[in-house]
Amino acid sequence: MKVAIVPVTPFQQNCTLIWDEETGKGVVIDPGGEVEKILQVLENEKIEVERILITHGHIDHIGGAAELRDALDVDVEGPHEADRMLIERVAEQAIQFGVPAAKPCEPDRWLQDGDEVDIAGMTFSVLHCPGHAPGHVVYYNEDARFAIMGDVLFNGSIGRTDLPGGNHETLMASIRDKILPLGDDVAFVCGHGNHSTIGEERRSNPFLKGL
Fold this sequence. Notes:
Radius of gyration: 16 Å
Number of strands: 13
Distance between the termini: 32 Å
Helix content: 25-40%
CATH topology: Metallo-beta-lactamase, Chain A
Strand order of the largest sheet: 6-7-8-9-12-13
Shape: globular
Number of helices: 7
Strand content: 25-35%
Number of domains: 1
């Protein structure tokens, strides 16, 4: 399994590419925009995209999904259907944050807690982790001890909860009940900034004190 991060848009959102180096098959996770930039990396790495995965419906994570789906002719999976309203209002989100216009991208498959998705030939579990967004999901592979965290937990911080649908208590419950029990050795890519491990965040993240 190979992983590449493509920071996109002024939000510097971590669009994540994961693929099997032998087969070349993989996925794109959270194409928030700058689709031509993403397509160029896919071409350079010779990645055959099987699907697009979304962690949640904020524009910096889903803003380029419709355009990329059209370009690649693949399905979009995720997030949880609780983010339907966010996705339907993606054009309004673009105006609100002053970024290029985007069109809604209803997933071909909404995901539920406990579902599984195939990423580069590996099975990832779906964890529904609301709080930053109502339908936010995290993708986790037990064997690799690796997760795609989205905007639930960051290196040194947590997802903001002042956007529509956000709730601080709900987010902290998601981190306490769904993320921390995965284990300190689990490494993760987050939606913005540098990667980390759950153990490092448990030890040093000021937002996790008392959990």
